[in-house]
Amino acid sequence: MVKTKSVKANSGASRDHHERLFLVALGQRLRALRDRGGITRKALAQATGVSERHLANLEYGEGNASVLVLAQVAGALQCPLAELIGDFTTASPEWLMIRSLLENRDEQTLHKVRLAIGETLGTANPEKTISSRVALIGLRGAGKSTLGEMLAEELGFPFIELSREIEKFAGCTIAEIQDLYGNQAYRRYERRALEEAVQIYPEAVIGTPGGLVSDATNFDLLLSYCTTVWLRAKPEDHMQRVIEQGDFRPMAGAREAMQDLKSILASREDFYSKARYQLDTSRQPLAATFAELHRLVRTALKPDALIENAL
Q1: Residues with Cβ < 8 Å from 243, sequence gap 6 or more?
Q2: Which of the listed residues 37, 67, 95 is the one where a domain comes to its end?
Q3: pLDDT tens digits, residue range 180-221?
Q4: N or C: which end of the chain has fewer CB within 10 A?
């Protein structure tokens, strides 16, 4: 009898341990997604109707136990939790078989598969196509507007500030779009603005919002039809440049602004790194940085390069 109790106790302790690990991982994913989107906990609470305290509990691994019930049911059914909750990638047998083929593959293999799928579906391959649309990506304060305007003038291309185009489509500011309509509406406006820029301008320099990489569809569109350059900088330089612009929106309501900025950078780095080129804007003065950017772009747009102009 004592042995039976001991086995039950060990089983219960093991279950508690696995549940704790599940909740911690859930919290980490939630925080990573929030950082990637540059969304404060307060903004997320307002958008979802969930209290900031409850969101904090989720992020620290103290989530609602009902999630564990779903995990247990999915385990009993031997299916992914995503299938149980209705994720679209589990909506058909083909989706499920594709998921099974890709599960546990390394990043390089997944990259090759994504490009192959894109070619099958008739989209441009960013590794085989050089476009005369140059898109600058990176977090706010990287130098996209300053360097983008200089580059456009030097090349004789129009400079497109995508954030301004989004506001034209919406008829209001980006902050008002977020407050009135939410993040999903903002991403739709972002996609429309990007699609129009690609359709209208065969040659252009495009300054993109820092969070564009948070939407996989929009980012894939950018990679497919633009020559992309990631402008990267030290967190301290990002912060200082934003302060000099008098714009504190990325850090609004945050007590630890620098730590939040570093978290956002870390969560987006893998996405930014998919750009064709990278340029460190903290390494040298503006004039030298621009000269390096100009040389890089001129080399990329050499006359014998394949130019893809149509969406």
Answers
A1: none
A2: 95
A3: 888 888 999 999 999 999 999 999 999 999 999 988 889 999
A4: N
